[in-house]
Amino acid sequence: MILVTGATGTVGSEAVRLLSARHQPARALVRDPDRMTNRTDLADEIEIVTGDFDRPDTLDAALHGIDTVVLVSPAVPAQEIAVIDSAVRQGVSHIVKITSKASADSPVDRRRGQAAIEAHLAATGVAYTLLRSNAYLQNLLALAPVIRQTRGFVMSAGDGQVGMIDARDVAAAATAIATAPGGHAGRTYWLTGSALITYSDIAKELSATLGREIEYRKIRPDEHRAVMIKAGVPEPVASSNAQAFGLIADGDAAWLTGDVATLTGNAPRSLHTFTTEHAAVFA
Ligand SMILES: NC(=O)c1ccc[n+]([C@@H]2O[C@H](COP(=O)([O-])OP(=O)(O)OC[C@H]3O[C@@H](n4cnc5c(N)ncnc54)[C@H](OP(=O)(O)O)[C@@H]3O)[C@@H](O)[C@H]2O)c1
Prior knowledge:
12 helices, 7-stranded parallel β-sheet, binds NADP nicotinamide-adenine-dinucleotide phosphate, UDP-galactose 4-epimerase, domain 1, alpha/beta
């Protein structure tokens, strides 16, 4: 039996949908089961289980009888470590961890947090696989309101290239491993889309999709941080985002691999596919 955490989130909801389509017995961990009442599409093999990363007793109950965990969350170290510790107590045999370009000495605090979680996971002795992804195309959805209002967006990524990946392909890779974990223990995969793109490319693609000019206005990371805070983004998140976009401008996200196709048998979705499918959100 597979358990997917963060089952109402971007990656987790797609992972549950994919497991359901395969009629694979699985549990979807959510903190609010009401959030799943609209998932009438799910097969009978999918159980909804309530659990809170901040309440280890609920995690132990949810993880009882589970063989493999797809671990995805906002990646607050104490929370993911609580899930990992519960998985160890419940005898889980494999954990597929969704992560990023983690590094203990990264200037970006959430990457240091991911490195701390990964180190904790490695120290448990449970078999695990790391899925280190490039930036998700779904992040672009956060720009939709400003694109609708101003026919453009600001960003501090300069002309930096990004191997952006559709989060649905992250979910596809995670479920491919979770349904057949043998051979993936101890492996790290670096998940990307199939092309390096800049935010100028994104503006061009959106312009073509929407049939009107969408402008990318380049700003500095400190200006971007201020814009995000003014828009209501919590200060620590705005600081981390601005740092990450500054790194992108310097080429930090300009990496591509073929790992999605290797794991799933399918080419990753493109920016064109993403903008076309989400045109109504940006229009
Ligand atoms: N965005 C990127 O570009 C990017 C790139 C590389 C890696 N990543 C990694 O991807 C992961 C995030 O994945 P995502 O975008 O799918 O996340 P997400 O959409 O933000 O979803 C987070 C999930 O965690 C659940 N959750 C939050 N607090 C909880 C709690 N206390 N107890 C139980 N559940 C809780 C949320 O439930 P509710 O719906 O109830 O809030 C939601 O289902 C992180 O590890 C991140 O580092 C992201």
